[in-house]
Amino acid sequence: MVEIIDVNGTQVHVQGQGEQTIVMLHGWPDTYRLWDPQVKVLQSNYRCVRFSLPGYENSQSRTLYTLEQIVDLIDAVITAVSPNQKVVLMLHDWGCFFGYQFYMRHQEKVEKIIGVDIGDAGSAEHQLSTKVKAFMFAYQMWLATAWKIGGGLGDTMTRKMATWLHAPGDQQLISASMTYSYYWKWSRTLTGKPLGHLPLEIKCPLLFLYGKNKPGMFHSEPWAKKMAAREGNQVIAFDTRHWIMTEAPGKFNQAIIEWLAK
User: InterPro entries attached here (predicted)?
Assistant: First the structure.
């Protein structure tokens, strides 16, 4: 049974049994539906909470959301669904960025983190080749431009990039309104404005899962080694691209179940 509650205009889906609450955050170009296979296997023992990021549903207007607004929304959701108990964060893509930033500001509300494919991207240790930098800049600028253009052309641009990057989501659910994060990032970066994000320092137990078959990594090797060396942490590499949960769902789910049970 799914309970849907409204938190500041956002529909939050709550499903499952158990004392521990897992809050699932997706990234581009997905919605809360990305986590359907995980909810199926986790709901018997955990309370699964998920919602679509602002602007990621077709019914929502095109708005340039900021880091502060999204962190505040995550905080409001967690306060509503688990006011007296810490939660587990399960994060992917932009959900990692926003979820990590929520954690950095509200560590007292987070018990554990499951980070998928995004680590310390952008840190001093995260070194990329010129070729990989060019690739990442190109696709992100394409999506930033899609948001700026908007409308039918922006939607088409966004869907084409989703296809090129092998995104698993339903094409009909993908629109340019999802790409505001790229516009927010690059409009600030190229004009010298700070993003306002805090340096990543995860002190709670972390399960970090990443795909090896990508043009470039979204984490540094030193960071992964440092995280893996800490008690309670685990780092697992998969023979997949970016969307591990859909490319290797069985192994992905098993890794999560085993780590949460420790």
Answer: AB_hydrolase_1, AB_hydrolase_fold, AB_hydrolase_sf, Epox_hydrolase-like
- Hey, what CATH topology would domain 2-125+196-260 get? Rossmann fold (3.40.50)
- Are β-strands 47-50 and 87-92 bridged in parallel, bridged antiparallel, or unpaired? unpaired
- Helix pair angle (130-149, 180-189), 10° resolution: 110
Task: Name the nearest CA neighbour of 179 among 30, 71, 50, 13.
Answer: 30
Paired tokens of 113: 């983190």
Cite the DSSP H helix spans in 56-127. 67-81, 94-105
pLDDT band of 17, cuts 50, 70, 90: confident
Decide: 26 and 53 in contact? Cβ < 8 Å. yes
Q: Is 9 helix (H, G, I), strand (E, B) or coil?
A: coil
Strand partners, 21: 47, 87
Between CA 187 and CA 183 the distance in angstroms is 6
Can you give the pTM of this predicted structure?
0.97
